[in-house]
Amino acid sequence: MREFVFTVEYKKGANEVMDLFIENPDLHAKSMAVHATADSMWRLDRITGPTEALEEFDAVVDNVTLCNEVIGMCGAPVVEWNYEILSSTADSRIVYSCRKEGDGVQSIPYVAAKHIGDGLLMQAERRGAQYQWRLLIDDDDTVGAIYEEVNAGLSDGLSLSVQRLSEPKCWLDDNLEADELPPEQQAALEAAVEHGYYQTPRENTVQEISKKLGIPSSTLQYRLTRAEAWLARQFVNDVLGTEVEERVEPAELELNV
């Protein structure tokens, strides 16, 4: 099996939901499960980010009229789409969505299922202007067919690029890697250290550092909180030798399996 990774990039204004990710770089979505048949596609996504950005997400998704990145790749009218927010916290959502496929309005999972058939495994991740897909494929000819059909189905303002076709590394290693800490969170940690945030006594507060960086204090606090959680899990995994899962709210426990 090989891992096929490609990214659909969105220009600002091309899609109402992706605009939220472009405008809010701390907003992040990752699939927990994606399934597709010749008739429909359904999926479960975890969206994380600042409270304000997630509230905007709720409002926009509740009024979607065009096929968008939650359910597909096109700019055509939605055929039949159902979604439900299964879990909601201050900094996360777990969203279930299901759509029927229609003529000329195929989703990326539908295209993949059509060419791969039974045994389809795929992942999806959204951040900024990029929506990245990972597929497990055992036939290189299938890669070309999927690429051509996805590329042909993109609406205006969307572009397609291929990152790799290689051994399925990301499917085999669940441990956190250093490059999984987003650049903005790395920068937040570096600024906090540089300005003495972790010194005793503390040399600068979050509010003071955010003014120096020219960003809202809530944004800096969110980035630091996420980065600190990442560091804690790294320490437990690598130093103590104990594998841990990211902590979830009680309401989410049955979903994160």
TrEMBL record:
<keyword id="KW-0804">Transcription</keyword>
<dbReference type="InterPro" id="IPR056529">
    <property type="entry name" value="HVO_2928_N"/>
</dbReference>
<dbReference type="InterPro" id="IPR007050">
    <property type="entry name" value="HTH_bacterioopsin"/>
</dbReference>
<feature type="domain" description="HTH bat-type">
    <location>
        <begin position="183"/>
        <end position="231"/>
    </location>
</feature>
<dbReference type="Pfam" id="PF24281">
    <property type="entry name" value="HVO_2928_N"/>
</dbReference>
<dbReference type="InterPro" id="IPR036388">
    <property type="entry name" value="WH-like_DNA-bd_sf"/>
</dbReference>
<feature type="domain" description="HVO-2928 N-terminal">
    <location>
        <begin position="3"/>
        <end position="171"/>
    </location>
</feature>
<keyword id="KW-0805">Transcription regulation</keyword>
<dbReference type="Pfam" id="PF04967">
    <property type="entry name" value="HTH_10"/>
</dbReference>
<protein>
    <submittedName>
        <fullName>HTH DNA binding domain-containing protein</fullName>
    </submittedName>
</protein>
